[in-house]
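Sample pair:
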Amino acid sequence: MSRRAGSVVVLGGAGFLGRRICAALNGSGHRVTAVTRGPARPVHGARTVVLDVLTGPMDELASVVGAADAVINAAGDTWEGTTAAMTASHVPLVERLIEAMAPAPGTPRLVQLGSVHEYGRAPFGTVIGEDHPTVPTTAYGRTKLAGARMILDATAQGRIDGCVLRLANVCGPGAPRRSFLGGLAERLRDTAPTGAPLSLQVAAEGRDFVDVDDVASAVVRSLTAPVSGRVVNIGGGSAIGMRELARLLITAAGFPSELVEEECFLSAGGSTRLDIRLAGELLGWTPGTALSDSVRRQWETYAQG
């Protein structure tokens, strides 16, 4: 399918992913609307609409998304939220979104930002392709998978034109403080002036990470790519040990390595490494940001306040 999306609505447009996606869309010549649940800092390159997609009036939601050529769902709860909050954000929200978009003329495209956690645990060394079994082990993974399946089912029924970009762990400027790197950055900032050692617990397994601007680039490409009804992995394509990842941030922060006391543990999440070949074939996309640069930019943004 070939299309041009001139007007794009980004749900969760004021969030970590949403802001960078809005900027990338604007830079590509799209007219962008950022939908946010409450007052937020202005979103660069977008007009802002305050609307709670989960509880707001359905006619208002239909008016916003029905006039768009494409909708990006970057909304949702974090993996640290409660099961009830994650279920509400990832299942009924998607159901309302599909209901609002289905009557729209021209069948606008819905791009769902999914998660590597939808796959669940994989044996060590596994490269996870889109055909890998989805057996999520967390409430976050299960609820994200439920939303993704709803979109794929609605697409198969001809109600919408949807696809799912299944993201690896995302890092880069603006990453939330509740993430591993965000939490570590906060501790580095608070510990450095004291001269005290930093006690650090890191998972022994590796993780796949991708820069937020590379994610935004993939989203822009997904608007015109032949991905209707498809799941496409978006990641770095390799797994980095969490100890090595932490060291990248520690180095970027200029924190003395001799003051770091490390302890490794086996996590419930296991190792993750996404097969991203399909993204190259269908989107013409590959990650372009070195992880060291992404982590450095994340620290610089954090250190600036």
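Residues 7-171+209-236+273-288 form a domain with the Rossmann fold fold (CATH 3.40.50.720).
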